[in-house]
């Protein structure tokens, strides 16, 4: 994690010549039992990565978890139970550091809101700033011409992880994790031969996975 953060910060500095004052770390696919691991492993790794760039560099960080696997739905009671308008934020009936947001316009059926849980925040962003930022990022996904259900960086992460499967130098279903079951030593030796195919240097700092 720290090496990844260091690389991202170096690329950012290469193009902007400044270091971020605030970092927003969006994460999805995290259950309640994994929240502690995210804070302990990923958040600590993010801070270590900042120290690798500059020992005095301590940006303010916002760690926010996005969840779609829930059964919560909201409708407008005053308009024959129609869907909520895009941009609706619900802070009631949630934890003190979380909120639901309906960012998209449902094409069919009932809109499914995204639940955002703020687990760490040392920034100077107010609740309204966080709501506006989350909503605006839902318009930044270039593949579609309307707002999506979650902030675009989460969709970027999904696409990049899917692209990683085809950049491995071996077929995904033939990796040691699936093929070597009994001999742990042989499994470790086989894993050392697995690596990602390098990206061309002209594409390395771009969103080539889009």
Helix and strand pattern = HEHEEEEEEHHHH
Question: Spatial order of the strands in the main sheet?
Answer: 1-2-7-6-5
Strand content: 15-25%
Oligomer: single chain
Bulk shape: globular
Please work out how many helical segments DSSP would assign: 6
Q: What's the pLDDT, averaged over the residues?
A: 84
- Helix content percent band: 25-40%
Ends: how far apart?
A: 23 Å
Number of strands: 7
Contiguous runs where pLDDT drops below 50 for at least 5 residues: none
In words, what does this structure look like?
The longest helix is centred in the N-terminal third of the chain and has 19 residues. The radius of gyration is 20 Å and the shape is globular. The strands form two sheets. The protein has a five-stranded mixed sheet. The chain has a two-stranded antiparallel ribbon with strand order 3-4. β1, α2 and β2 form a beta-alpha-beta unit. By secondary structure, it is an alpha+beta fold. It is built from six helices and seven strands, in the order αβαββββββαααα. α1 crosses α2. Helices cover 35% and strands 17% of the residues.
């Amino acid at each position: 994690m720290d090496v990844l953060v260091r690389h991202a910060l170096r690329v950012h500095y290469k193009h902007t010549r400044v270091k971020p004052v605030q970092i927003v770390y969006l994460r999805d696919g995290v259950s309640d039992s994994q929240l502690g691991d995210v804070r302990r492993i990923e958040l600590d790794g993010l801070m270590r990565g900042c120290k690798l760039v500059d020992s005095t560099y301590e940006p303010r960080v916002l760690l926010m978890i996005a969840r779609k696997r829930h059964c919560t739905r909201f409708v407008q009671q005053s308009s024959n139970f129609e869907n909520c308008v895009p941009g609706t934020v619900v802070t009631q009936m949630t934890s003190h550091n979380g909120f639901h947001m309906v960012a998209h316009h449902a094409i069919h059926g009932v809109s499914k809101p995204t639940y955002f849980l703020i687990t760490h925040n040392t920034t100077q962003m107010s609740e309204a700033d966080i709501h506006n930022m989350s909503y605006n990022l839902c318009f930044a996904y270039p593949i579609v011409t309307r707002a999506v259900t979650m902030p675009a960086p989460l969709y970027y992460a999904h696409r990049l992880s899917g692209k990683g499967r085809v950049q491995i130098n071996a077929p995904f279903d033939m990796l040691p994790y699936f093929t070597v079951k009994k001999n742990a030593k042989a499994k470790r030796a086989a894993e050392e031969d697995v690596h990602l195919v390098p990206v061309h240097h002209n594409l390395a700092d771009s969103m080539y996975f889009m």
